[in-house]
Design a protein that fits this description.
By secondary structure, this protein is α+β, with helices and mostly antiparallel strands. The chain contains 8 helices and 13 strands. Strands 1, 4, 5, 8, 9, 10, 12 and 13 form an 8-stranded mixed sheet that branches. A 5-stranded mixed sheet has the order 3-2-11-6-7. Bound molecules: the ligand Nc1nc2c(c(=O)[nH]1)N[C@H]1C(S)=C(S)[C@@H](COP(=O)(O)O)O[C@H]1N2 and molybdenum atom. The site of molybdenum atom (MO) has 7 residues, from loops.
Amino acid sequence: LKTMPVKLRKNWAVPETAVTPEHIYMNRRQWLQAAGFAGAGLAVIFAGGAINSAHAVIGPYPAPRNEAYVGGRALTPEDEATTYTNFYEFGSSKNIWRRAQKLTTSPWSVTIDGLVEKPQSIDAEDLLRQLGGLEERIYRHRCVEAWAMTVPWTGVALARLVAFARPTASAKYLRMETFLDPLVAPGQKQDWYPWPYVEGLTLAEATNELAFLATGIYGKPMQAQNGAPLRLVVPWKYGFKSIKSITRFTFTDQRPVSFWEQLNAKEYGFWANVNPDVSHPRWSQATERLLGSGDRVPTQIFNGYGAEVAELYSGMFPNDKRALFH
Ligand SMILES: Nc1nc2c(c(=O)[nH]1)N[C@H]1C(S)=C(S)[C@@H](COP(=O)(O)O)O[C@H]1N2
Ligand SMILES: [Mo]
């Protein structure tokens, strides 16, 4: 997303999130005891075998495909989707996949905080065990820059994480944050960007059946450049909403201000639902270029997912429907 480097007010530099609570890692035995498991029968519960090694990925891969989500287009070639990526933490070119290998994705501490019954930090693998079995879904992805892909993601419905977090009745939004480590991610040394990357959804969006927490791609564990170990996938919204390498889920009653919205609110808003009829201020959104074939195809409202999500927005912005697509 090319945007003018705007010098921001300095107050973003010391967000309330600057201090990460120290996370004490339980070893596996301690975790099993804490979780109340006896040891026998684990193989059945965690049908992935990952229980045997300290830093294994939770599987199995490939996960069973959920046939409700089949993409509707030819799959993008795997090497395209894993080498043409947007991950500004590693630079603003599409060609950062090699640099991203520096990211250590296990162990990976995830903090769940804000308006929840019990704030906690938990390792991503332990979290995934608690969220239940993985599934595969093929989704179309539409970047605001007008390229698109069709990709098989592995993961769990984001609604499961929301249920696990037990938000209080006053929570209205889910704010998500990417890691902050300029030594690993050289893009984060560029101080005109409001690091860390932040995104947000309403809780109604976060618990919609389509919202997905992805752990893998093309039947394999996620690669760093695609947002390992945990990234959001919200296919009815422009791609920048699908935040990568998440370290924090905060439940809040305040609408989160996203990374791109802080940089340029006129071009990248909170809702960012795909709509071919609402142009970006600097280009048309009427069509998209498919990664791989290079074909140009028409863009669809809600990226073709209106049946699943249009209801979320019924009655909103009666005087300015375009607001939903900004
Ligand atoms: N943390 C983080 N998440 C991010 C981005 C980013 O730069 N940093 N880029 C976004 C954009 S613009 C897009 S289009 C998608 C790209 O996902 P992909 O590279 O796996 O195709 O990731 C989104 N999530
Ligand atoms: Mo994007």
